[in-house]
Amino acid sequence: MHFSPQEGAYDLHIRDYYDKMRHFDAPFEGDIVLQGEHRAILFQSLQRIERLVRTVGHGNFSLLGFDEAIRVARNYPNVGAFSRSELEFLECQFYADAAVYGFYGVKVITGLTAHIRDRDVYKVPYSGNYLFKGEPLDTWNTIQKTLGNEVVLTSGVRGVMKQFHLFLNKAATNDANLSLASRSLAPPGYSFHGVSDFDVGQRDFGEFNFTDRFTETDVFLRLEELGYLTLRYPRDNQLGVRFEPWHVKVKQA
Fold first, then answer.
1. How many domains does the chain have?
2. What pLDDT score does 252 carry?
3. Sheet architecture: strand order including 247-248
4. Where is the D-alanyl-D-alanine carboxypeptidase-like core domain (predicted)?
């Protein structure tokens, strides 16, 4: 088959894209990797955020907004106030166009100071996670009622600070590579965990619930058969995100 130069370039681009998705935890040429001062501020910001997590607790941190995080940090010496450079870094990261990293999802939280109201969420017993009331909670209740104790809620509501923590930690543990982080975790503002979605897993399956091995579990097979797994990030998606068979899509955006 004959390819024109344009077709050949496009074909190469597609192969490169799928190679990144298959090897999402590997660095690639062209990845956005922070250097110098920006790299140092990433680590400083992450360390402060981790002290914040330990101070407020993991459950409370899931709902913590940006403004509230600043207040708590300022009032607790064991956390310490965010420096101007750290705040500027976090603001820059939030408002950056994630497409630069290779992430092509929708930005669902457009304001850095977006706040999750307590009355809008429900803490799911024995899970350590919250879900938004309404369709997300109704969906989980139906899944739990159908599958019983075999299914567990592995991740629910994530506020802006929670997504910052996950995303920056992933980048920090991979040589400050923001593109690599975005192949596994939505950058802050882009996660549907901030408005609706949640993750499920097989009880006693541990960290394998966040790997392709989850597709071998009874929970996955039953949910797929019953039509509850309308995946946000299906295999070979065009959003720049690895396959996430555990991620339950609630809103249809």
1. 1
2. 61
3. 151-155, 198-202, 247-248
4. 147-249
